[in-house]
Amino acid sequence: MAGLRGVSRPARSLPLSQLSRPACLAYPAYLTCSRRSVSTQAAESPAVLRDLETDSTLGAPQLSPDEKRQFKPWKRAADRKGFGLPGSRYQFHPPKYNRGPLHPIQSPPSSDPTARDFVPGPFNMPRLRQTYQATIASDIMTLAYNHIPPGTPSREQPERLRDWDGSSEYHKNRPKRGPRGSPVLPLVEQNITFRNIPEITEVTIASYAPQAAKDPEHLLVARTILLAITGTTPEITRTKSSVVQWGIIEGQRAGVKTTIHGNAAYEFLDRCIHIVFPRIKDWKGIRATTGDSSGNLAFGFTPEEVALFPEIEVNYDMYPSKMIPGCRVFVKTTATSDRQARLLLQTMGVPFYGEIRN
Asked: What number of CA atoms fall less than 13 Å from residue 277's CA on the CB side?
């Protein structure tokens, strides 16, 4: 009895004839001979357990290295025919072309996994971008509201392009000329509505290191600093023309630049506005004359101001202090004028000083 008590309960429910089999002794009891029955009557009748398998996948032989190399699950799935659902009735296929906003069939947004341009994310929400969506966007629409009473006649816009005077036969059928003194035609400022509230699209950071022509380490330090500040690998820029007086040769490496988009651009501006700008001594702000008349603004940092970034300050001893370069920051927005771009950055906390140009 003492030896029988040491056997597991499923094994004790089996007849002694089954326990005395050599196959049961060759394998563990939980692989072959262990059978759990609901009642003793079912255990006594082998016909009830005839459909149950006594073998286990744990006891199956392993595949050889040659069989593992020949095993291709994707090929088995491709060769399996007739098991998929018909795509015309049960599977959703987004349209390949957008037929307009009034078409009955519309493409799903990019956040939908079924969209053709699906991009996972976003996985984080910068504080400055969340503030823009919650507060700044509505404030800009309120500050830029222009009330036009019904019935007010619209003002005629002056001609932006100049006509030819017709003094020559070659003036016929020629396109109009641009304005005087400006090779680039600026954008026409559009009124801010709920459809075109200005926002930031990208930020470009560029650093110029002319000493890199003689000492390549200046270029390495500049690239490492921009990599730490932006989190993206900068590209090396080269000079476009030669200047003999300054010792600049066309095509030589003279700087680095990188462009960040989306959440990374908002995070960079958040660090500039709330960490770097307040720590600059006697800083007045950004000049109000900056801009390209198309809603893009620019400002710069000196080498001493670049060292105020937290990514540089925490590892300041890693960079040679005399090799830390300055950088220029170009902020690209969806605004149609510099006035709207300044309004956008002012609501985010950037001060401007000096003469304001519209």
From this structure: 17
pLDDT score of 340 more than 80? yes
The one-character DSSP state at 134 is I
pLDDT range class, residue 32, cuts 50, 70, 90:
very low
> Residues 25-32: what's their mean pLDDT?
44
Distance of CA 88 to the CA centre of its chain: 34
CATH architecture of the domain with residue range 200-353: 2-Layer Sandwich (3.30)
Element housing 297 (H / E): strand 296-301
Longest dimension (CA), the chain: 126
Position 278: which residue type? P
Please give the structure tokens belonging to residue 56: 């286990």
Instruction: Quickly tell me which residue has 């380490």 as its tokens.
Output: 217
For residue 265, give the amino acid letter: A
* Residue 202: strand, helix, or coil: strand
Do residues 239 and 221 make contact, with C-beta atoms less than 8 angstroms apart? no
Global pTM reads 0.65
Listed in order, the ranges of the chain carrying CATH 3.30.1440.10 are 200-353
